[in-house]
Design goal:
The complex is a heterodimer. Chain A is built from 15 helices and 2 strands. By secondary structure, chain A is mainly α. In chain A, helix 9 packs across helix 10. Chain B has a single domain, classed as Rossmann fold (3-Layer(aba) Sandwich). Helices cover 38% and strands 27% of the residues of chain B. In chain B, the strands form 2 sheets. Chain B has a 6-stranded mixed sheet, sandwiched between helices. In chain B, strand 4 and strand 5 form a beta hairpin. The longest helix of chain B is centred in the last third of the chain and has 16 residues. Classes of the chains: A mainly alpha, B alpha/beta.
């Protein structure tokens, strides 16, 4: 009776022979190569890549599970930065009053980032319950097109609500952690940037484990692969949709909050992250979260290379050119396949 | 156990069922036979909650089943193995089974049910870590039945297990159903393979143009003139 747990049919080595791992290997190799020539390229790639991975991962998840091309995804980045700003400023003032408080200095930025993620989650839940669920009940014809228009409308609505309620100002901070930069590979990196990388890595790891190992994560993948089959297995679709949307928006808001020192909050701040996330998702193959995370680092690497060797104005040109090239030869994206899997094995 | 009275159902403008009366008793093995387009699959889909019924009533153990959502139907003990199987192609065999046990919280019970499924279909154990999308047709059927068994349903609805299978694989599938029935699972089977099915089941219904036209034990129907002419080609 215990045979089920003893047998391992797939040899360890073969698990890593897939195309996905080849691409990962190649990207890592390129990054390491540049690390010798110009270590700051590696550092910049990792920092920005980590955040685009959170944005693109959420976008891919929602497309994979719910078939929604979310063009309001950037607005959750905006909401995250706004919430983080609102929470962090009083803390920063408190820090000015007691400059010796180690607790405030070290832990001060976290409440803002955490509250931003929670608010993002709630906004996602509201979006699903108030908009997508009624639409789903009424008609599932032309679903992708309808939800595209719906999310584009939500985007306009949120941007202008922000403008109406909070004005057209930049609300930013210069830094989260008021401490000296640290040295990594001989490159001076501000603690804020290092923390962005650490937060991104932790979130990606938690996200990956959630999708692969937990009951809810598995149910999410099941819904993305076969909705009917998932229902037959006793999965409540509405519950999964609420959770998916919430999670995706929480990741976007988290990214917005963590990057507040680079992207001050203002109504249109979500536009650039939104398009970057779309670049990544199109490059990786729609609805593939794992691919989106790898793609985020590829796009970040190309952006960094453009900044270092071509010029700041080329920052979006290099990634888009690369995406066009990939799509010419592999129209379904780098990791796209016939099977929609959200997270491939 | 399961009782359908005058059930009418269909899709948008197309009504398929025009008054289906059907009953399955605890521990029975019942077949629903009939030609293509008679409404066999629609009957199962209506029971499973995927198609709303327009008129009539469906009860399971005395509780009404009309308007109950599919995942709730699964939760009250009705397993459904559809014609198209609806497996999760990018998940391993093992994970498909785990998802099948979504509603089960007891880990020990999950692993003992998985062991039971692997015992029933040793082939699935060999393919444990293979993606469901790469399985053969017969193996997919086994996996679909296995996944349907994961919540330990008291009633299993099986739609055309023989569809698209080689004779040997069909036999395996039927053999598995026989074993399940022997272990106390009540089964409602939809089939086109009339001869084999009638030898296998306790009772059968014949569905034609959305209505039940015949009912009887397997032997009775094998001897029936209409069945012999229309389905057995005698």
């Amino acid at each position: 009776m215990t045979t089920a747990t003893n047998l391992r049919a797939v040899p360890f080595a073969r698990r890593f022979m897939s195309f996905t791992w080849l691409v990962i290997g190649f990207v890592v190799l390129v990054m390491v190569a540049f690390a010798f020539i110009q270590p700051s390229i590696l550092v910049d790639t990792l920092v920005t890549g980590g955040m685009w991975a959170l944005m693109a991962g959420g976008l891919a998840l929602v497309f994979g599970v719910m078939n929604i091309p979310n063009f309001a995804h950037g607005e959750f980045f905006m909401i995250g930065s706004l919430v983080a700003f609102t929470v962090f400023v009083p803390i920063q003032e408190a820090l000015l009053d007691n400059p010796d408080s180690v607790v405030l200095k070290v832990a001060g930025p976290f409440p803002g980032i955490i509250v931003a993620a929670v608010v993002g989650f709630l906004c996602g839940v509201l979006l699903e319950v108030l908009l997508f669920r009624p639409l789903r009940k009424r008609s599932r014809e032309q679903w992708v097109m309808n939800t595209f228009l719906l999310t584009a409308g939500v985007s306009v609505l949120l941007v202008n609500s922000d403008r109406l309620l909070f004005g057209n100002d930049f609300r930013g901070i210069t830094r989260y952690w008021d401490v000296k930069p640290i040295e990594i590979l001989g490159v001076s990196v501000s603690v804020d940037r290092a923390m962005v990388f650490v937060i991104a890595m932790i979130m990606i790891a938690v996200f990956a484990v959630f999708l692969q190992r937990t009951r809810m994560g598995r149910a999410m993948r099941a819904v993305s692969q076969d909705e009917t089959g998932a229902q037959m297995a006793g999965i409540d679709l509405n519950r999964i949709f609420v959770l998916t949307m919430g999670l995706s928006c929480a990741l976007a808001a988290l990214a917005g909050a963590a990057l507040l020192f680079m992207y001050p909050s203002f109504p249109d701040v979500g536009i650039q992250p939104l398009y970057l996330a779309w670049y990544v998702v199109i490059l990786a193959g729609l609805g593939n979260v794992q691919g989106a995370i790898i793609g985020a680092f590829i796009v970040a690497l190309l952006q960094t290379l453009a900044v270092y060797y071509v010029g700041l104005g080329w920052v979006d040109v290099l990634p888009t050119a690369f995406i066009i090239l990939i799509l010419l030869f592999k129209p379904s994206g780098l990791f796209g396949s016939e099977v929609k899997g959200v997270w491939e094995q | 156990m399961l009782q359908l009275t005058g059930v009418e159902a269909g899709y948008d403008l197309l009504q398929v069922l025009w008054g289906v009366d059907l009953r399955v008793e605890e521990g029975e093995f019942v077949a629903l036979l009939g030609p293509n387009g008679a409404g066999k699959t629609t009957t199962l889909r209506t029971i499973a909650g995927f198609v709303p019924s327009i008129r009539g009533s469906i009860t399971f153990r005395g509780e009404p089943l009309d308007g109950v959502l599919p995942h709730k139907v699964s939760a009250i003990g009705i397993g459904y193995v559809s014609e198209s199987l609806n497996l999760f192609p990018a998940m391993s065999v093992y994970e498909n089974l785990l998802v099948g046990a979504y509603a089960v919280r007891d880990r020990a019970r999950i692993s003992s049910t998985i062991d039971f499924v692997f015992e029933l279909f040793p082939r699935l154990l060999e393919r444990r870590d293979q993606l469901a999308g790469t399985l053969s047709g017969g193996e997919r059927k086994m996996l679909a039945i296995g996944r349907g068994l994961m919540p330990s349903p008291s009633l299993l609805l099986v739609d055309e297990p023989s569809l698209g299978l080689a004779p040997m694989a069909t036999l395996t599938a039927f053999e598995a159903l026989k074993q399940l029935h022997a272990r106390g699972v009540t089964i409602l089977l939809v089939e086109q393979n009339v001869n084999t099915t009638l030898h296998l089941v306790d009772r059968a219904y014949v569905l034609e143009q959305g209505r039940i036209v015949l009912e009887g034990t397997g032997q009775q129907l094998l001897g029936n003139n209409h069945v012999q002419e229309a389905y057995l080609g005698i």
